[in-house]
Amino acid sequence: MKKENKVLKDLQKAFNTGVSFMLPAVVVGGIFLAIALATGKATDSGMEITSPFMQNLNDLGAAGFAMMIPLLSGYIAHSLAGKPALAPAMILGFVANNPIGSGQIKTGFLGAMIMGVAVGYFVRWCKTWKVPATIRTIMPILIVPVVTTFVLGMLYIYVIAVPIGAAMDWLVEVLGRMQGGSAIVLGLIIGAMTAVDMGGPINKTATAFTLALMSEGIYAPNGAHRIAVAIPPLAMAISTFIDRKKYTSEDRDLGISALFMGLIGITEGAIPFAVKDMKRVLPAIIIGSAIGGALGMANGVEALVPHGGLIILPVVNGKLWYVISMLVGTLVSVAILHFTKPNIEELKAE
User: Fold this and answer.
1) Quick check: 231 and 292 in contact, CB under 8 A?
2) Coil, strand or helix: which one is 317?
3) Is 277 helix (H, G, I), strand (E, B) or coil?
4) pTM for this one?
5) Domain PTS EIIC type-2, which positions (predicted)?
6) In this structure, are 34 and 153 located in the same domain?
7) Of the four listed, 238, 277, 288, 298, which is most buried by Cβ atoms within 10 Å?
């Protein structure tokens, strides 16, 4: 029992460490993207930024977001096993967040967290190896990083990523059969998929499905998806504003950044909150996004561009229901968080 408690404490500390090092990248990326996209115009291919200066700012923001997941994975592993684990976990976090292998599979922040933990425990094991003194000096800078990256990288590409890719293909097939009479159910599913991994493979599967339907002139599923992408960050932002005792000062500051990200439809703004408290945050944002998506589908909301948030309101059919659906979904998530998330003092006492 004590060993189990130690493992859980180690993991909790690791996730908190990963989040704290990731936060600056999230804030920089989110604020720069929000400012840049706010100056753009909605087109068939998404938000188009016309100013060269704002495009440069957008690229800086995108770089912040690209660094976010490797930092999370790297510092989860660093917390568990020290410096030798940092580089392999950052590399594998980057790999998890980008398409790789013959199926070009991406597992997003959930895959990166898994790889961070795997690297941490693998490197801990490597540190127990009995090696000659001459080799011991190069273990942390050469042997451990190379062996860890190779072994776990191959395991990820050939074992972990394969079933995930198969599951994504199955999901697209199921969604493709759910048009027409199943509109509300389809909205629920698209909304839930959008929130469950916030920019990861399940979210991207929903995106791919809605884009495919857009090419056929069917815009309602995209409406549901674009309502849902805004709900997780908006819900977390509002929750930090009204339930201040449930969040650290760091979280409350992040809530401001999450608000901007929600307004421009960047779901990833909720990731730091989910990593720190997955069992309460994920159900809340999944249910809220599902309800928002279902309301959008039920009321015929259509988003005519592949982007989300209130920033695209001018190119939405059914503007009132677009806003109402987003607001209702957000408030549902906020309410769930209010009743399930304990105050910081209670959490420390636990």
Assistant:
1) yes
2) strand
3) coil
4) 0.80
5) 11-350
6) yes
7) 288
